[in-house]
Amino acid sequence: MGSAIWFRRDLRVSDNKAVLRALQCGEKPFCVFVVDPKVLSASSSAIRTSYLKAALEELNEELDDNLTLMFGDSAVQLARFVTENGISDLYCSRDVTPLSRLIESQVAEMLRSMGVRVHFVDTPYLVDFDKVLKEDGSPFRVFTPYFKTWIKSALAVEVVRLPRRYEFQSAKLAERRNWGPLDKVVSYSGQFATSSAEIIARLDHFADEILPNYSELRNFPSIDGTSRLSVALKFGRIHPRTIFKRVVDFDPGLRFTSELCWRDFFGSVLYRNPDSPKVALDAKYDAMRWDTGPIAKSRLQAWKSGQTGYPLVDAGMRELLETGYMHNRVRMVVGSFLVKDLHLDWRLGARHFMSHLLDGDVASNIGSWQWIAGCGSDSAPFFRIFNPTLQLQKFDPEGDYLRRFIPELGHLDKKAWASFIRADSAQQDRRLYPRQIVDHNRERREALLRLSELSTIGFVN
């Protein structure tokens, strides 16, 4: 009887515990990925699907053309796979989304009823959630104490080392490559690396050239000042262990390391609060008065299409539509604008992001939106409201980022640009660019009024 690796959000060979454990069984393991329509329909965008296909092609190359692709229900397809290939042990990683956990339980139940041992040996996160708990065994709700406990365990983590030589084998199936709907998808070939060599090269460049000044560079969207590894992390083309071990000794103040911890923190929050994609963790905010109706729908559409009249908001939303990516500083600005200037439910923004983000990760996306809306675990207070004009003046003063995504403003020279971003809406030349759909100062006051209303129904002291 043989072993097999069920690849999920770990589309790589290196630093992969499931691969190592399967290789340790003695025989050459089989390798399988299931294109499950439930997963595709629930959490995939067109651009993420294109990256998934490219990542699977890269993984197959790493496996010397031994990856089997099956389309259909994960439990049903894996039952067929283990039967036809004489598998006794299946190795795989866990995930944290409610759908992923349901699929895991279905697979484990079916295969174990067939006498197959199912081993969940890893996760997409750096530190096991059960190792980051309070002294009484309860989970942290605040990030700073979470980080202090997390970093102790993180420093003890080791990268998974595979044997110097290893081989895999092909499945005994009539059809080894059933891409399902991925068959008609064009593989991703954009700005984010898909090959392991390119991803490691990017990590090395970040660690050597960017990390020493990360704290100063990270907030400027026109500058190459971040790791740009979020897409590779989303699909498991690299594990956070690999990143952590490469950067931790060269990270001043552990600023970037804390971002890896935020990723773990949001993962643990979703794991322990599976309803959080639909329900605010801070229940009082479910009573927040959100705008609805035709005007609200019109404003939502303006936000989605980058037509709000606020250049930094619009550049970010257009970057998202054009590239499937948005700089993190800009994500905070557009999120604050949706929730606190347009008074629209944060869940609308979360859904739109998941529909377009290349690095769209359910846990990080929900955690970030609840953070900006003030209703999550250790969130920014609701009264912290980003001023999109001041954010533009501070983080894109020359307009280099904006001109890349708002061609209507490309004609402005340096002097005209400086005047444009400092003028109020009534004074700006809006012949080619839309006027502001709301007045920020007025909507800021309205947002604070709505926050105060929660106290009248007994939620805020």
The radius of gyration over CA amounts to 24 Å
- Extended strand count: 5
- Helix and strand pattern: EHEHHEHEHEHHHHHHHHHHHHHHH
N- to C-terminal separation? 64 Å
Q: In CATH terms, what is the fold-level topology of the largest domain? A: DNA Cyclobutane Dipyrimidine Photolyase, subunit A, domain 3
The proportion of strand residues reads 5-15%
Quote the average pLDDT.
94
Question: Helicity level, as a percent range?
Answer: 40-55%
Strand order of the largest sheet: 3-2-1-4-5
Count of distinct structural domains: 3
The first-level CATH class name of the largest domain: Mainly Alpha
Describe this structure in words.
- It is a single chain.
- This protein is α/β, with parallel strands linked by helices and 461 residues long.
- It folds into three domains: 1-123, Rossmann fold (3-Layer(aba) Sandwich), CATH 3.40.50; 124-160 and 196-272, Alpha Horseshoe (Serine Threonine Protein Phosphatase 5, Tetratricopeptide repeat); 283-456, DNA Cyclobutane Dipyrimidine Photolyase, subunit A, domain 3 (Orthogonal Bundle), CATH 1.10.579.
- It is built from 20 helices and five strands.
- The chain has helices at residues 17-23, 37-43, 46-62, 74-85, 98-113, 143-156, 196-210, 214-217, 230-234, 240-247, 255-272, 294-305, 311-323, 328-341, 346-356, 362-373, 388-395, 400-405, 414-422, 440-456, and strands at 2-6, 30-35, 67-71, 87-93, 117-122.
- A five-stranded parallel sheet has the order 3-2-1-4-5, with helices on both faces.
- Helix 1 (17-23) links the parallel strand 1 and strand 2 (30-35).
- It is globular and about 70 Å long.
